[in-house]
Specification:
By secondary structure, the protein is α/β, with parallel strands linked by helices. The protein contains 16 helices and 15 strands.
Length: 480
Amino acid sequence: MQVYNSLTRKKTEFKTIEDKKVRMYSCGITTYSDSHIGHAKQALQFDVIRRYLEYKGYDVTYVRNWTDVDDKIIAAANKNGMDPLDWAQIYIDRTSADMAALGVRPADIEPKASETIPEIIEFVQTLIDNGHAYYNEETGDVLYNIAEFPQYGVLSGAVAQQSIGNWREGKNGEMTSGKAEDHQYDFALWKSAKPGEISWPSPWGQGRPGWHIECSAMCYKYLGETLDIHGGGLDLKFPHHENEIAQSEGRFGKPLAHYWMHCGLVKVNGVKMSKSLGNGMSIREALDKYHPEVIKWVILSSNYRSDMNLTDGIFEQAERHLDGFHRTLLQLKAVNETLPPEPGDFAREIRQGFEEAMDDDFNTAKVLANFYEVAQRINAALPSPKKHAQLAGVYDTVLELYHVLALFTTDHQEFIDALQEKYYALRQVDKAAVQELVDRRLAFRREKNWAEADKLKEQLLAMGIVLKDSKDGTEFSIAV
């Protein structure tokens, strides 16, 4: 299995610290408002990575934190006259519900920054003791002294190293004088309390943790000094993950993680999604419009490292594809009851293609692309009973594998029916009126009054109704 490592900037064979055990951490959400589709992308893609590692036989301990101590949370809570931790808990609960509705499994451990204060204080004190941090008497803050960590910038490369490298060069390497300009890139580990802010007692007075130290402390508390995988969004690479490396490796003198994995960002018609541009979409808004499997199909159609571009109509296109796939699987399920349980060649080919794609840096885009061909081959075999033998084990194999991607977990008929109801409502078509027209057309057909039957057919087609005639009558549905 090959995994792309953001630290080395190349794919390498995946090797764990302990045999068949994975310690995995991904940075969670700052809970000051409803989570957006970008949060869903990261959460789903790392959940799929965890699921596939489990499929491969690894014992995975997965930690995803909640940042419930932050400037934005404090500002929102104060604006609404609430305690910041209570405000954060509202959005922890809402986000948890949204992720569950989407089909994202909770992490094994989901710690909060506010519940890790003793460990954070201990971590900061250790960095002071070993010379990597210092107390600023003027501000009451504790800062990390990056002059004491020459490797700073190793993860983010040009982003950090260009500015800091120029700074080091300008200082001729002399950055320990204590002058303010020698510490312009230092970052806060502990912030002194300000009026109206939540705070905790510490050796440096009342205050609260900086953002970066929270993750270092939680990584160490739950997973130890070195992890197998540390992940997060690409936007966290600098400064957040760079600062985590400085903190953790400054304390322990060993790598924080063997593999750094970063998810791409979300764009809307080619433009980065942001609240300031008004082009954002919360998970809740997406779930109000689209079935969870539709959202997941769109997210997983791009590899985790790639940006996801939400172009106009992308969700509707996914609806059409999934409608067809669920109809195919519904028919296959009925045929499956007559087939031997042992997988045939086709089923084994599906598994091989799935594993080859996922072993190549968890390439979900390839797995989804493969399914179009799988569905074509199933549909080609379904009409002919003589070809049903080649479908042995295919249904169970598809469900097993695509459940790793949290797909096809919904009852097929339930998915089809839900989509039908949505499109009847969207197009303001009365299903009862359609049934009446279909019955009238059927009566004309029985009378062999083809002219009148064809007029009704054209009327139904104009309404977006799809007809399927058989010797037993006429089935109808609305086009998706």
